[in-house]
Design a protein that fits this description.
mainly alpha, 2 domains, globular, 168 residues, UraD-like
Length: 168
């Protein structure tokens, strides 16, 4: 999609399109007010500004719009609207061994039990063992530290998806 095409979307189409990049309703509503945007840098700057202005509740809402790392079944079913991007983002888990996938599933459960939301990481370019290592390390964080890390990871994902959107 070109920037011109993005700028030409109806409010409802823009909402739907932005939701594929970040699922936080507050962020989407703030972003809609930015349009039309003049260039990609302006779009990315607005995305970051509005993401940082969101509340922890908004961040958690965005996290809920992602499948768990390594959960390929959920990726195909529940997250069909972003499955193509998510599949590429989590490509490192596709060829992962059963042992690694089981360890990711166990780690995901521990993480969710501890923090109350799914493990969120910008998975692009990371292997399954690398993501498992990151998950294991982040389980050591306090809830206050971890929400900030997860927020930054979501910000990276959103920026990548906005760039992908404009290159599609």
């Amino acid at each position: 999609m070109t920037l011109t095409a993005l700028n030409a979307l109806t409010p409802e189409q823009l909402k739907e399109t932005l939701s594929t990049c970040c699922g936080a309703t507050a962020w989407i509503e703030k972003m809609k007010k930015e349009f039309p945007v003049t260039d990609e840098d302006t779009l990315l700057a607005a995305a970051a500004k509005h993401w940082h202005a969101c509340s922890e509740q908004d961040w958690r809402e965005a996290f809920s719009h992602h499948p768990k790392i390594g959960d390929l079944h959920a990726l195909q079913e529940k997250f069909a609207t972003t499955a193509q991007w998510t599949a590429r983002e989590q490509a490192g888990t596709i060829d992962a061994s059963t042992v690694i996938l089981q360890a990711l599933a166990k780690g995901n459960k521990l993480y969710e039990d501890k923090f109350g939301y799914i493990f969120i990481v910008c998975a692009t370019g990371k292997s399954a063992p690398e993501m498992l290592s990151i998950l294991t390390e982040r389980l050591k964080n306090s809830p206050e530290e971890e929400i900030k890390i997860a927020m930054i990871e979501q910000e990276k994902i959103t920026a990548l998806r906005l760039k992908k959107l404009l290159s599609a």
